[in-house]
Write a structure and sequence with these properties.
Blueprint (H helix, E strand, L loop, with lengths): L19 H13 L1 H6 L10 H4 L8 H17 L3 H20 L6 E3 L5 E3 H23 L7 H12 L3 H8 L3 H8 L7 H9 L9
Antiparallel strand pairs: 1-2
Helix pairs in contact: 1-4, 1-5, 1-6, 6-7, 7-9
């Protein structure tokens, strides 16, 4: 994102009404929840998995979505330029990485929605956010997807379980196409949707 031109920061994305700068600001916001979560008292036990985090409740209601949109737009507007926004995102993820590396295995956190989760499970939801919105940003900018194989494997595992690779091979789909389709980023036919459902996919509710 550090190589994005001034004009490109204003390009529209599929995540309307966000443009490129606002979508990157959103990705920064979803990472930036972690310092406060780690500073808060740890719940006694985890009750929600990464899959359950994406359940269809009020976290994806119109009012919550509107607040999510406004928060990203406000953060983007606070930055003097797209380059400053990219630098801010870089500093944010590095801070979060240092904090998470210092936590013990089995650390439990409470999300802003009130979910007690293993830190590792919540971080998996952050990989989902970075991965799928990375596809959105690359598409908006007309670039080749920069999704890493590690991130793709984690999101695929979340959606299909440990046998996902074998299931995809039977379907004859590439990993990138599957991830685009399973997260609503590529249209499919009714027959293709039926094929995906037979894989035992864990459908996620995405705002």
């Amino acid at each position: 994102m550090t190589g994005v031109s001034a004009a490109e920061w204003g390009l529209p994305t599929r995540c309307a009404p966000w443009n490129v700068s606002e979508l990157l600001a959103h990705v920064r916001v979803v990472i930036a929840w972690l310092p406060g979560m780690l500073a808060a008292p740890a719940p006694s036990c985890a009750e929600v998995s990464a899959v359950e985090y994406y359940r269809p409740d009020d976290r994806f209601a119109p009012g919550t979505n509107a607040a999510r949109i406004a928060l990203a737009q406000d953060h983007a507007a606070e930055q003097l330029s797209g380059a400053a926004l990219a630098d801010d995102f870089n500093a944010t993820w590095q801070q979060v990485d240092r904090l998470c590396q210092a936590e013990p295995e089995g650390r439990v956190v409470r999300t802003r929605h009130g979910d007690p989760m293993l830190l590792s499970e919540f971080l998996l939801t952050r990989v989902v956010e970075v991965a799928v919105h990375g596809l959105d940003l690359a598409d908006a900018l007309g670039r080749e997807p920069w999704l890493t194989s590690d991130a793709a494997d984690l999101v695929q595992g979340l959606l299909l379980g440990p046998d996902g690779a074998a299931a995809l091979e039977k379907l004859g789909w590439g990993q990138l196409r599957f991830l685009r389709t399973a997260t609503g980023r590529e249209p499919i036919t009714r027959e293709e949707a039926s094929d995906i459902s037979r894989l035992g996919i864990r459908w996620l509710t995405l705002g």
